[in-house]
Design brief:
By secondary structure, the chain is an alpha+beta fold. The protein has 2 domains: 5-83 and 192-350, T-fold, CATH 3.10.520; 90-180, ApbE-like superfamily (T-fold, Orthogonal Bundle), CATH 1.10.3980. It has helices at residues 63-84, 92-98, 109-124, 134-139, 154-162, 190-207, 300-325, 345-350; strands spanning 5-8, 21-22, 38-46, 49-57, 105-106, 169-172, 177-180, 213-217, 220-224, 233-238, 246-252, 255-261, 266-269, 272-275, 278-279, 284-285, 290-297, 328-335, 338-343. Strand 18 (328-335) and strand 19 form a beta hairpin. Mean pLDDT is 89; it is low at 1-20 and 22-31. Magnesium ion (MG) binds at residues 191-192, 258, 260, 304-305, 307-308. Residues 191-192, 258, 260, 304-305, 307-308 line the site of magnesium ion (MG).
Length: 358
Amino acid sequence: MTADRAVPAFPLLATLCLASVVACGQATRPSDRPAALLIELFDGATMGTTYTVRVVSAEAWSEARRDRIGTRIQMALDDVESAMSHYRPDSEVSRFNETRSTEPFTLSPATFEVVRVAIELSEISDGALDITVGPLVNAWGFGPTEPETLPPDADLLSRLRARVGFSKLELDAAASTVRKTDPALEWDLSSVAKGYGVDRVASALTEEGVTRFMVEVGGEIVASGANHLHGPWRIGIERPADGGGIQRVVPLSGHALATSGDYRNVREVAGRLVSHTIDPRTGRPIDHHLASVSVIADTCLLADGVATTLEVLGPDEGYALAIERGWAALFLMRDGDTITSRVTPEFDQLAPAGATMD
Ligand code: ADP
Ligand code: MG
């Protein structure tokens, strides 16, 4: 559902729920200057989280235009969810997971692209990101069905780990097919689907002639053009401890920003809080002092995938890979109650330190 409203461009300070980022806020307008621009706001639910779209416009849109754009936004997200959610029994992902056939399985161009990028990141990271991690995610209680026992015992984990491995997938780009060489292989595209959904909404807006917007799904963001104050959109990256607040402001335009954190989606297992991010190399939830990692990239699909990859690898291995690949990444590490940070030169270049929310 989209909200039916155009809001004055100020004062706007929205907290993006479930996101590791806050607000695309701005300064209060000097009272003697008339409001020149409006923000059309659309929001709703998708992929188990929420979305927000802000579009800058010179005048309030007609109801017909709002309806049209609102419908396109929701349709773009519905398309992604209905193809890629493993919570939907009829999705491509669920059908792929159910089949025990090792024959080529035809994918829509969208799902093929998402899987292709994810596998590329698997290869780059030696399997830290691995969309075949689904059975392990389920075993730790973060999938569609509640496991019988938590935590999973070592025996179960080693049996499940034998079913995981991106190298057991064969993609054929010309035919748009994928083949599982192990019949028990299953996917979980949650690490990249939200980011891809953001890209799809951004494309839909561009097709509609909209050039100044910010799209956010569950904390993954694309910003385009100037905000209503004629500058880049401003995204605050949350400080996940140490009294909270904003650790760093990212001015964003023409890029995507995604954040993976160890603190949003957790559950208690045997008296400990465990993360929904699983290290496929151990079969266990990650266990290091990286609190969050934020990544800027050209597409949100890539930013989302890289953020999860680095989240799995942790503050040292992840940082080393980000440096090697030239990825723009900001790492926030927990050190007792304080937060320390590490940033790659590419991140500093795209989002220089010292930016403020206004
Ligand atoms: P968030 O942005 O909400 O932190 P991520 O983009 O980091 O989410 O994706 C986390 C989700 O990806 C998990 O809920 C799980 O479904 C799946 N997942 C967990 N570990 C991995 C992994 N190593 N590789 C790929 N997907 C994973
Ligand atoms: Mg991700």
